[in-house]
Amino acid sequence: MKLNKIYSAILLSTLPLTPALAAGLDRSGQSIAAFLQPGNYAEAGISILDPKVQSNQLKVNDMAEDYYFPSAAIKVQATEHISIGLLYDQPFGAESLYPSNNPVFGANGEATQVEVETHNLSALIGYQPTENWNFYAGPVYQTVQGTVSLRGLAYGGASKLGSYDINLKEDEAYGWLAGFAYQIPEIALKTAVTYRSEIKHELDTTETFGFGAIQRPNALTEVVTPQSVNIDFQTGVAANTLAFANIRWAHWDQFAVTPKFLNAASSNNLIDYSDDQWSATVGVGRKFNSHWSGSASVGYDSGAGNPVTTLGPTEGYWSVGLGGQYSPAENYFIQAGVKYFWLGDATARTGTTNVGEFEDNYALGYGLKIGYRF
Questions:
Q1: Whole-model pTM?
Q2: Which of 138, 224, 246, 288 is deepest in the core (most CB within 10 A)?
């Protein structure tokens, strides 16, 4: 069985677009698939996640906010042996808002909430000594910012941390990535291993305690986004059909956000995780005709430990996804996908105290992407 390069390129693009909902703050999965496309290539996409995270025990109907994140990439085959690329994504984040009328997580019309936002720009240069091998590396520019408010009895009420706010001002820092890929285009076989370094940030921090409006400005809080390894694999299994898999490891087990004055007041971290994340996605893609192709996938994520922070009370997931692609011509396509997540039950904890159970959680993810070969 042989597949020409155009078929390989079309089938490669059927990999599921829909967003990840992973352990810790992991969001995009940090794929470099666009850089491994043949020839010159550009893409832009948007992913949307609609989660529901609830606790019957604590009378919380839903504390997880919907969110969306864009992505974009361009890859240029500068010479026969040299390629360059630029990838943009939002790899980590969180967005949660508890109901303000729940005394466990709200007080005086205000509610516990969190917003964490990151932006990544990865510049890559690849060297292809032969048609089969590709060695690549490059710098990564990253920004991080966040705000958190704690309200309610879960944090000891207004006399303790139940009146606490923190603003982590945007910080920029640099890391790097490196990896290699091996391919046999005739059978659509491609495998890639990519390592990303941790990136250390020191964010200007303002902490406010509502009792007496005590403000603690001009402190620095260290945040280290985790190192990770992605392994991607695909191979043709029949005419116009391929199988694919992705495995990801992210080093969350030493992750902690420890603001100076919150720690002094409670001896606790604001956010921490106890386990590394392992996730995997496997599936098949098929080209139906010259214009249409599709994919189906199954996914698993281990989570980053349990009990977990009240700011994200789920532990891992199982998922199923479907993707479809329309190619009006050989050089461009439009892709859409949907994914359903069964989110793992978790025990929410503040410091060393378990607050309650979050169960029967789920999420729907949607994605849209446009790709162009030039």
A1: 0.93
A2: 246
Look at residue 1 in the predicted model and tell me its pLDDT.
39
Beta pairing partners, 78: none
Of 151, 150, 147, 123, give the one whose Cα is nearest residue 137. 123
Domain that holds residue 117: 5-373
Token digits of residue 132: 């089969």
Burial per residue of 307-343, b for 16 or more beta-carbon CB atoms within 10 angstroms, e otherwise: bbbbbbbbbbbebebbbbbebeeeeebebbbbbebeb
CA–CA distance from 170 to each of 18, 30, 33, 258 (Å)?
27, 21, 28, 16
* Ramachandran quadrant class, 59 (left: phi over 0; alpha: psi -120 to 50; beta: rest): left
Residues in the chain: 374
Q: pLDDT tens digits for 114-133?
A: 999 999 999 999 999 999 99
DSSP letter for 115, please: E
Number of structural domains, the chain? 1
Question: Up-side HSE of residue 368: CA atoms within 13 Å toward CB?
Answer: 3
How many helices (H) does the chain have, and how many strands (E)?
2, 24
